[in-house]
Amino acid sequence: MPVDLDAKLAALYTRTGGHLIKYDLDTTRALLREMAVDPLALPCIHVAGTSGKGSTSAMIAAALRAASLRTALYTSPHLLRFNERIRIGNDPIPDSDLHALLDEATAADARQAALPSHRPATFFEITTAVAFAWFLRRRVDVAVVETGLGGRLDATNVVLPLLSVVTDIALEHTDILGTTLEQIAAEKGGIAKPGRPLVLNTQPEPVQGVLSAIAAALRCPLVHADRTLSIRRLSLAPAGQKISVETPDDGPWSPFVLPLLGDFQLRNAALAIAALATLRTLRPDWNVNPETIRAGLSALRWPGRCQPLADDPPVLLDVGHAPDEAAALAAFLKIWRKKRPVHLVAGLVSGKDAANWFRRLRPETADVVLVHLETERAMPLPDLAAAARAAGYPTPRQAPDLATAIAIATDAARADAGRVLVAGSLYLGAAALRHYRLPAL
């Protein structure tokens, strides 16, 4: 990456926190107008939710690519390189295009911010403008767009999607999105658009009631993935899980391997397949069918979620940092560990519900080694240790860096024929991929 691009990205990162964080759509719209970018012209699928929105977005995009559609994917955050957030096909935005678009976006932002009652754009608003500009100028057939935070006032919510998808919802960012499930569901469901299908798995009350009411008010056809198709695991291996799918229109599909592990990925896959089946009725001219969906999902790579890193001893990486994600991970560990001890390497950023996160994992893990993340947002080790002890780890160990933590856990696993789990923050996931010299794409 050119040094001057590094400097531009460093400047972009300064646009987070403080007075800049004001949630509205006016600034994004003003910025896009200055760039002569019409987000309503972008054919897209919009995805929001608490858990699984990245995986679900990636699955939908993979199937659309397999259908020979020029498919864009916008997700956040990245693991190793900023460019991963903005992709067409399997390729991230080139440094040269990113460099030029950052210059254009920051100049446009200076113009719109100078207008009365306007403000400078945030990191995510600039990034979203860059992504939408690149996708439209490259004339993609369709874009899969993941929200950054919430939905109703998220910078991505300036599009008019072909359909909207809402993944599982739980309490998160309560200082911004609300302190109840109803409030958070209303924010996430705010991506729904009049008359456009809204696809979701059945969710517990009160979330289900809020989303159903939104769909009724906007006359959105409401599609419940888990009511319209059947999906089950046939077998499990390190390379993925062999699954069977049955849909009302096509009946049983030929079994295939989904290269993502965990029961929660079956739920995400059901949601992605239901969204694709709905899209098939909206765009029958697109080659979206069981064969292309199977081909796309079989070829999918989505690092960081139940990802095997090594075999001797087995090492698994998962970057789910919310308690609900830890609960889903624990359900998978019950199968994966095969009654062998699991030695946890963990690191989280400040502001997370660390005690409840550890509490979900405690029944399936033998001990924990804590590591300080290489970011100013890292939860201090004393706080992390206190949370681990509160969750039932009597003597959490601490390591100065990830390499040391992995060495400690690996030695323990070799001594008791156990396994290693590296889990917590995306920052930890990125460091683990670098440690094992694995790519993010």
What is the topology, as strand order, of the major beta sheet?
4-3-2-5-1-6-7-8
CATH fold name of the largest domain: UDP-N-acetylmuramoyl-L-alanine:D-glutamate ligase
What is the second-level CATH architecture of the largest domain?
3-Layer(aba) Sandwich
- CATH superfamily placement of the largest domain: Mur-like, catalytic domain
- In CATH, what is the class of the largest domain? Alpha Beta
Task: Please state the average pLDDT score.
Answer: 94
Quote the distance from N terminus to C terminus.
17 Å
Q: Give the strand tally.
A: 18
Q: Summarize the biggest pleated sheet.
A: 8 strands, mixed
- Tally of contiguous helical segments: 16
The helix content is 40-55%
**Structural classification:** alpha/beta
What's the gyration radius in Å?
A: 21 Å
Q: What fraction strand?
A: 15-25%
Shape: globular
Q: In terms of per-residue confidence, which ranges show pLDDT below 50 for 5 or more consecutive residues?
A: none
* Count of the domains: 2
How does this model look, in words?
By secondary structure, the chain is α/β, with parallel strands linked by helices. The chain folds into 2 domains: 3-298, UDP-N-acetylmuramoyl-L-alanine:D-glutamate ligase (3-Layer(aba) Sandwich); 307-435, Mur ligase, C-terminal domain (Protein-Tyrosine Phosphatase, Chain A, Alpha-Beta Complex), CATH 3.90.190.20. It has 16 helices and 18 strands. It has helices at residues 3-13, 26-34, 53-66, 95-113, 123-137, 174-177, 181-188, 207-218, 225-228, 263-282, 290-298, 323-336, 354-361, 381-390, 402-416, 426-435; strands spanning 44-48, 71-74, 86-88, 91-92, 142-146, 163-166, 198-200, 222-224, 230-237, 240-247, 251-252, 256-258, 307-311, 314-318, 342-347, 367-371, 397-399, 419-424. It has an 8-stranded mixed sheet with strand order 4-3-2-5-1-6-7-8, sandwiched between helices. Strands 13-14-18-15-16-17 form a 6-stranded mixed sheet, sandwiched between helices. Strand 3 (86-88) and strand 4 form a beta hairpin. Helix 13 packs across helix 14. It is globular, with a radius of gyration of 21 Å.
